[in-house]
Design brief:
The complex is a heterodimer. By secondary structure, chain A is an alpha+beta fold. Chain A is built from 24 helices and 17 strands. Chain A has a six-stranded mixed β-sheet with strand order 2-1-6-3-4-5, sandwiched between helices. In chain A, strands 8-7-12-9-10-11 form a six-stranded mixed β-sheet. A three-stranded antiparallel β-sheet of chain A has the order 13-14-15. By secondary structure, chain B is mainly β. Chain B has one domain: Beta-grasp domain (Ubiquitin-like (UB roll), Roll), CATH 3.10.20.30. In chain B, about 10% of the residues lie in helices and about 30% in strands. Chain B contains one helix and five strands; from the N terminus they run E-E-H-E-E-E. In chain B, strands 2-1-5-3-4 form a five-stranded mixed β-sheet, with no helix packed on it. The longest helix of chain B is centred in the middle third of the chain and has 7 residues. The radius of gyration of chain B is 12 Å and the shape is globular. The mean pLDDT of chain B is about 95. Classes of the chains: A alpha+beta, B mainly beta.
Chain lengths: ~600, ~80
């Protein structure tokens, strides 16, 4: 079978040994790779009740069959483990060039077990694998770690690393690669930190074998044309990046502002994609084999580097009531240096501001720093303190749920399953609320991005306030996304490509014979095994809900005024669509149908 | 005559013109207005009036705010 190298690198950090295992290709076909295969390995090898930061938890770094192969955006990898933030399955996706390099080195998966006594990093040069001391890297920022390892190792090597955030076990710590790309969500960086694993440097000299060059050329010609002709992937994302959504969501009155207290931000244009492009953008950047190039390379004052995404402009921007683009750019930069998830970090600062606003956090806890809506002066400094675990920053580094709960006000945490929700107020967009509530990793938009039909009109326009048919849409989007995340390509291709296109991609690269429906069925299988993991971990379907604020307090003003999310109208229907019982638990029949 | 506001976004923002207030005849449709102001309907992917998705046939009313976006997306 093509598409895979057939090799798992299993590293035991406790005794400092490693070995090669053969990838079960029949199993791979059932779960594709990436998110699906990683979750299957977690289910097979790890007790779902495991303490996420204990040596018994495992950390899987998993490529997909498209990773490193000559298809559009074929460079992504997934980190799969148990989340310390949500206690659910964690699977965080990242682009850049690192994932493809791992494939070039001859590996599909790295499975980390145990815990090293001292800080180490893993060096891979094809089949030469070494665990080396990270004593001089521990405590350093992501860019410094990357530079040091690039100097020390073979030219062209790629570096994946955690920052101080992961080392200090921040529950919102990310794993970074290529300096500013992030497997951001669910606190996966803390799991890596708990194992005393600082980095993975990889250099590969091979290329995966492909079955038929002519078919690949034909496939690429067709799919690249679709991506180019699509207004979003062909023009919108290349020109403005993801940041262009700021003004759209604001005009709809669904841009969460001041920790979801209101849903429109008067100064949204100051933090918009248009402003970023006009005043800060130097060039756009792209991940491995990406024809879209949504990445932003920006300049702010004397500093230049990777710029903020839409979610980050929101989390540090309107969610904190801040319209100072320079402050947001620096907060984003320090999240990358500390290795922190920009959504959770910004949203946690927003929650901290509300705690301060309501008198829970006292002035004497601030060490003289500013912490108020609309004031961006110290947000980058708060990010550093979260990363280094200093003062109030140490409490904030555990995410907004633990922060607010510690002050006796958990209702101020805008999270689902303790994961901070992103930049779409589900009171004004019903389907995305159902997706947040039922996402297997908690409050996440990229588990089922129904913003596409509900706001962008792709593949067709749905009424955002309507609940009917949303359960069907959410399920299809969740299943397709699970498959895309497992293939090793970017979710953004789905603006232009559908299930049949992904089946064709898989067939051409791996020599399989799947249809679009088969791809959706595999996605369904992945979604169900994730749900099973969560249930066994003790995360019940009672947590398939939204913060009370979004179910009870109507949006107070603007175009979505008066709306709350009508989750109760959708959830039962969604469970039925999934073939689950009314209790939100997969039935025996459903699991049997999926071969689970 | 009625007064409406037009807001331009992304590539529809020409010469940095973010918005303008127009005095127009009553009962004019969005489609006709777009023609008058030189915006091709096929270039508009998201058409909002007062923050709500609206069809090109909609007859504009006094005080309406029309927001125009080309095909854009993100995540």
């Amino acid at each position: 079978m093509y598409g895979y190298n057939g090799n798992i690198l299993r590293v035991n950090l406790t005794d400092g040994t490693w070995k090669t295992e053969e990838l079960d290709l029949e199993m791979a076909k059932k779960f594709i790779g990436g998110r699906g295969l990683g979750t299957k390995m977690m289910m097979d090898e790890v007790d779902p009740k495991v303490d996420p930061l204990s040596p018994e938890n495992k950390l899987f770094v998993v490529t997909g069959p498209m990773t490193g192969n000559p298809v559009a955006t074929g460079g992504r990898y997934m980190v799969v483990t148990k989340s310390p933030l949500s206690n659910t399955i964690a699977s965080s996706n990242s682009g850049g060039k690192w994932g493809a390099e791992l494939k070039f080195a001859g590996w599909d998966i790295i499975a980390f077990e145990g815990k090293s006594e001292e800080p180490v990093y893993l060096s891979i040069e094809d089949d030469k694998v070494e665990l080396l001391s990270a004593a001089d890297l521990w405590g350093t920022t992501v860019s410094n770690t990357t530079k040091k390892l690039e100097e020390k190792h073979e030219k062209g090597c790629k570096v994946l690393a955690i920052g101080p955030g992961g080392e200090n076990l921040s529950h919102i710590a990310a794993i970074m690669n290529d300096e500013d790309r992030a497997a951001g969500r669910s606190g996966v960086g803390a799991v890596m930190g708990s194992k005393n694993l600082k980095a993975i440097v990889v250099k590969g000299s091979g290329k995966p074998e492909v079955p038929d060059q002519d078919r690949i050329k034909e496939l690429n010609k067709k799919q690249l044309a679709k991506i180019k002709e699509n207004g979003v992937t062909g023009e919108g994302l290349p020109t403005y990046g993801t940041a262009v959504l700021v003004n759209i969501l604001n005009e709809l009155g669904s841009l969460p502002t001041n920790n979801f207290q209101v849903s429109q931000f008067e100064k949204a244009d100051d933090i918009s994609g248009e402003t970023l492009a006009d005043k800060y953008l130097i060039k756009r950047t792209a991940c491995y084999r990406c024809p879209i190039g949504c990445g932003r390379y920006v300049k702010s004052g004397d500093w230049e580097g990777g710029g903020p995404e839409y979610e980050t402009l929101w989390s540090f921007g309107s969610d904190c009531g801040i319209n100072d683009m320079d402050s947001i750019i620096m907060a984003n930069h320090w999240c990358n240096e500390m290795g922190l998830d920009t959504i959770s970090a910004g949203a946690t600062i927003a929650a901290a501001i509300e705690l301060h606003q309501r008198g829970y956090i006292k002035d004497d806890e601030l060490d003289g720093l500013e912490l108020e809506f609309g004031n961006g002066t110290d947000i980058a400094e708060w990010v550093k303190r979260m990363g280094y675990g200093q003062g109030l920053g140490a409490k904030m580094a555990q995410g907004s749920y633990r922060l607010t709960d510690g002050y006796g006000a958990p209702e101020l945490s805008m999270t689902v399953k303790k994961l901070e929700m992103p930049a779409y107020d589900p009171r004004g967009i019903m389907g995305i609320g159902l997706n947040y509530a039922t996402s297997n990793r908690g409050g996440c938009h990229v588990r089922g991005y129904t913003i596409s039909p509900e706001i962008l009109g792709l593949p067709e326009q749905l009424d955002r306030f309507e609940t009917k048919a949303k359960p069907t849409w959410v399920k299809i989007f969740q299943d397709l996304t699970a498959a895309i995340d497992s293939l090793g390509v970017c979710l953004f291709t789905s603006f232009a490509l559908g299930a049949d296109d992904y089946a064709e991609m898989y067939n051409v690269i791996a020599g399989t014979d799947f249809t679009g429906n088969d791809i959706l069925a595999i996605g369904d299988r992945i979604y169900n095994i994730e749900k099973q993991f969560n249930l066994l971990a003790g995360v019940t379907s009672a947590e398939d809900t939204l913060p009370k604020r979004l179910l009870v307090d109507p949006i107070p003003e603007g175009p979505s005024k008066g709306w709350v999310n009508k989750l109760d109208e959708m959830l039962g229907e969604y469970y039925k669509e999934r073939g689950w019982g009314e209790d939100g638990i997969p039935t025996e029949a459903k699991l049997k149908e999926l071969g689970l | 005559m009625i007064k409406i506001e037009v807001r331009y976004f992304a590539t529809l923002r020409i010469d940095d013109k973010k918005k303008e207030t127009l005095e127009i005849q009553e009962d004019i449709s969005v489609e006709s207005l777009l023609e008058q102001i030189g915006v091709a309907l096929e270039d508009v992917a998201i058409l909002l009036v007062n923050g709500i998705r609206t069809s090109p046939e909609y007859k504009l009313k006094d005080g309406d705010v029309m927001s125009l976006f080309p095909p854009v997306g993100g995540g």
